[in-house]
Inverse folding.
C-alpha cells in the first residue's frame, strides 16, 4: 500500500477561513438570481453580519488587525470627524453635518449590496471601509462584472495609523476577509480617482492591476483589479 501524505500548500492554507473569520457560513450561500429595482440581475445576497467579522495578528506591524461592522450610534461622530478632515474630504467629497452623515449611513445599512466596516489596529478604530457587490453597483457597466466580484472604498481616518507599512497590513486584511467571505469571489475591484496617485500605488503594491481609466459621471476613475490567484499565490500574510 502506497504511503499517502497530506499536503497543504501555503496558498491553500490562507484560504481556510476558520482561523480568521469571526463568523461565517460553512457553505456558500445558495445562488438564487433576482432582478432588483434598477433592473440589474444578480444573486440574492445573504443577510449582512453584525459585530466583528475578521481578526488576524500581523507580524509586520506586530499588532492585531480586525474588521467589524459599523455601528451608527457608536461610530457616527467618528465617521463625521474623518469625513470632515481636509485630507479625506479632498477625495471622498463627503464632508457634512452629523444629520447628513447619519442619513447616509442609515441608507447604506438598508442596501444589501454594501457592507460598512470599521478597521481596527489593536482594537483602536482607525479606518472606514465600504465593501460592495460589484454586480449591482454603479461600477458594473464599466467592466465585465461577475456575480461574486467585490469592490472596496477605503479611508484611513487616524493620522497616526497612516504609512505604507500600515497600508500593507490593513489592505491585506481587508482583501483576505473578502476572499474568505465567499469562496466564489475571484476578483476585488476598486475605482479611486485617477489622480489619486498614492492610493493607486498602494493598490499596485498589493498586486492590483490597472487595466484602464474610465469616466464616472462625477469623476475620472482608475479601474483597479485584484485576482484571487494573484493574492494567494504570492501571499504576504504572516
Amino acid at each position: 500500500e502506497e504511503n499517502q501524505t497530506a499536503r497543504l500548500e501555503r496558498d491553500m492554507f490562507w484560504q481556510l477561513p476558520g482561523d480568521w473569520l469571526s463568523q461565517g457560513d460553512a457553505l456558500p450561500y445558495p445562488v438564487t438570481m433576482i432582478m432588483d429595482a434598477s433592473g440589474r440581475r444578480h444573486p440574492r445576497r445573504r443577510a449582512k453580519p453584525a459585530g466583528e467579522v475578521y481578526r488576524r495578528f500581523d507580524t509586520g506591524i506586530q499588532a492585531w488587525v480586525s474588521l467589524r461592522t459599523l455601528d451608527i450610534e457608536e461610530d457616527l461622530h467618528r465617521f463625521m470627524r474623518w469625513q470632515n478632515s481636509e485630507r479625506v474630504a479632498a477625495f471622498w467629497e463627503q464632508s457634512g453635518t452629523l444629520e447628513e452623515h447619519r442619513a447616509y449611513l442609515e441608507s447604506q445599512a438598508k442596501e444589501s449590496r454594501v457592507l460598512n466596516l470599521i478597521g481596527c489596529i489593536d482594537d483602536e478604530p482607525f479606518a472606514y471601509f465600504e465593501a460592495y457587490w460589484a454586480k449591482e453597483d454603479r461600477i458594473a457597466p464599466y467592466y465585465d462584472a461577475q456575480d461574486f466580484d467585490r469592490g472596496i472604498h477605503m479611508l484611513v481616518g487616524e493620522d497616526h495609523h497612516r504609512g505604507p507599512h500600515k497600508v500593507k497590513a490593513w489592505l491585506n486584511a481587508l482583501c483576505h476577509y473578502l476572499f474568505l467571505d465567499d469562496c466564489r469571489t475571484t476578483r476585488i475591484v476598486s475605482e479611486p480617482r485617477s489622480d489619486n496617485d498614492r492610493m493607486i500605488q498602494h493598490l499596485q503594491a498589493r498586486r492590483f492591476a490597472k487595466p484602464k481609466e474610465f469616466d464616472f459621471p462625477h469623476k475620472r476613475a482608475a479601474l483597479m483589479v485584484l485576482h484571487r490567484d494573484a493574492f494567494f499565490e504570492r501571499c504576504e500574510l504572516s
Q: What stands out?
A: The chain has seven helices and ten strands. The mean pLDDT is 93.
